[in-house]
Amino acid sequence: MMHWLIKGARVVCPTQQIDAQMDLLAQNGQITALGHNLPADGARVVDADGLLLTPGFVDLHTHLGDPNREDRETLESGAAAAAKGGFTTVLMMPDTEPPLDNAPTVAQAVARGRQADVHVLVAAALTKGLAGNDMTEFHALKAAGAAVFIQPDGTVGNSGLLRRSLQYGRGVVPFIAEQPRDSSLIDDGLMHEGDNSTYLGIKGIPALAEVVTVSRDLLLAEETGSPIHLSLISSAAAVKMIADAKARGVPVTCDVSPQHLVYTDAALENYDVNYKLMPPLRTVADREALRQGVLDGTIDCIVTNHTPLTPEEKDVEFSLAPYGALGLETAFALLYTHWLHDEPEHLATVIAALSSRPARLLLQPAITGDLLPGNPADFVLIDLQRSKTVTAGELASMSKNSTELNATLQGWPAATFVAGKPVYASGELAWLAG
Amino acid sequence: MQRNLLDLRTLGKAEIELALNTAEACKQLFDRPVRKVPTLRGKVLVNLFYEPSTRTRTSFEMAGKWLSAEVVSITAAQSSVVKGESIKDTARTIQALGADYVVIRHSSPGVPYLLARTINARIINAGDGTHEHPTQGLLDMFTIKERFGRLAGLRVLIVGDILHSRVAHSNIWGLRTMGAEVAVCGPPTLLPSGLAELGVDVYTNLDEAIQGVNVINVLRIQRERQNSVYFPSLREYSRLYGITRAVLDRVGPDVLLMHPGPANLGVEITEEAAEDERSVVHGQVTNGVAVRMAVLYLLGGGEHDALVD
């Protein structure tokens, strides 16, 4: 196996509180040294002067079309998109066709995932058929390789079932997750309820639809003492409620998407279906609260909610278009361009929210999200100066439903290493991939 | 004027004024012995209606014909997804058939924007879901202006389901742009957020709302829109918000009563009120043709003066 000496990069490793120009030595798939003026010791030298070197990103919310919706995304195209975006680990959502709600399908997905260029972990369905009525076989799914149990695009409406799931699942997996939203408050809403929904004549989804369910979930987690993970928080009120719960020791964690940290409901101005997301993009005040939540740790991690959809199903009448957008390839560049470029002091925190913080939630020894010697050599080199316009043709995903389509963004991954192997490289480092 | 007429919210004062003045000139054509003018000869106007409509579609048909355009009306299946044919595909087909103007009505807000992004024909929004109905807004403003000689400074009350009414939305944006005072009144569940911030006076009590108004525009209560979810019953709605002759009498002899039609007589408006001399419910239809002629003419790049000559 090739050894690599990455020379002279600006190394940012939040868990070690490192932000300095250093060298990194990777041997036999592991990080073996991090320091100044390291000797090559038979390793191939990569001149990384001017590049940022961070832990590989870990995405806890990736939708793939594999199996049976390979027109949206295959395992291979999804992994390529991940590598291109600097993600070395993705947690695959169970909403495939059929859903990953039984041991054989989970085992098959886990086995398939091992063939990918990046680490593909599998989240199993929390309820049978993701229908929200019956618990799946937690122990069998765990034995088949499930990392966590999740209801990826919705709430377990039955509070009794969620309570029993938390009680029964405690200790089986690190956490049980759902996306908090009350469907009766969503009703036939399609975007955030506010001034812009009035302007656009689109029925609104009040922030309350999220907050009501967050409130219930926090009470259930508090009472059962069983960790719950709330996927895709979108409102200031929910952030505050979660912060209060954490302060009194409730075992809750949560995440947010890059889009919700950058855009608001004003992005829907021209009925661009790519901005039709669930939960919906909300107001400037919500966005600021979400950013603050990431910075103060109330929000544990940033997840892409990568949702590939074909043009035929996505680019239709606004009310008929399914929710979701791609995320893996552009997540970092989006955050850098619209947030970190102007507030560089938050770079290390955002990198932690993309790497070590999500990794920590998984409780898997091989997924660490940091650059500590002895750990797997999962890392990414990023060119913060590079500017690029996102085009449909250039995306690695099979689908093209990106919120960043035709936008020019700055701060792109230049090379991504998984277990010491370059899985993506571009520009001056393109030779790595060859 | 812009290429397309998609909404009134982003239309400027000068553009609305031009449209209203042009409509006045168009209306004068009605009194000529030969009404037809050759302005759009050789042009193709396609009415693409995904929702049933008689008066708006007919109004556009008449407007196109009096301008000598070739007019084709298509009533399409409700949902393209159900039908298995995408609306973009339909639009491209219509363009390939030579459409210069596409008048689109659809139940999903934003569809006119989707069409404007997809094809080059000029797009006119004839009602998109609960978003806007710009030509109805222009027609209402035209009718008010015809009666009072101005829009600025008038107080216009819109009564009913403001949340779901594209007519209400186009009226609110247009009237605010033209300097009229706008008040709305309806059950709290049918009033969208953010109106007060736009300078619209919001009422839930009809008696308070009618104080000092010049115009009352009554919206249709759409039984098919499951309004039971928003208020308990039509009877209760009618009792609280129905416009009767007694209500008109409380406002005064000069109030102008409007309704975009078709009215649910006995629900949001009584027949007695609709037939009252203060009502222009029927006069609005003729004005609709004039306004739509003006819009077609202006989107085609026509000069106001050329039409008058």
Describe the structure.
The complex is a heterodimer of chains A (434) and B (309). Chain A is α/β, with parallel strands linked by helices and 434 residues long. Chain A has 2 domains: 4-53 and 376-433, Urease, subunit C, domain 1, CATH 2.30.40.10; 56-362, TIM Barrel, CATH 3.20.20.140. Helices cover 29% and strands 23% of the residues of chain A. Chain A is built from 14 helices and 18 strands. In chain A, the strands form 3 sheets. In chain A, strands 1, 2, 3, 4, 5, 16, 17 and 18 form an 8-stranded mixed sheet that branches. In chain A, strand 17 (408-418) and strand 18 form a beta hairpin. In chain A, helix 4 packs across helix 7 (208-224), helix 7 runs parallel beside helix 8 and helix 8 (236-247) packs parallel to helix 10 (284-296). Chain A starts with a strand and ends in a 9-residue tail after the last strand. Chain B is an alpha/beta fold and 309 residues long. Chain B folds into 2 domains: 13-131 and 285-308, 3-Layer(aba) Sandwich (Rossmann fold), CATH 3.40.50.1370; 134-284, 3-Layer(aba) Sandwich (Rossmann fold), CATH 3.40.50. Chain B contains 13 helices and 9 strands. In chain B, helix 2 links the parallel strand 1 (44-49) and strand 2. In chain B, helix 1 (13-29) packs across helix 6, helix 6 (134-148) crosses helix 7 and helix 6 (134-148) packs across helix 12. The longest helix of chain B has 17 residues, at 13-29. The radius of gyration of chain B is 19 Å and the shape is globular. Chain B starts with 12 loop residues before the first helix and ends with a helix. The interface between A and B is medium-sized, with 20 and 28 residues.
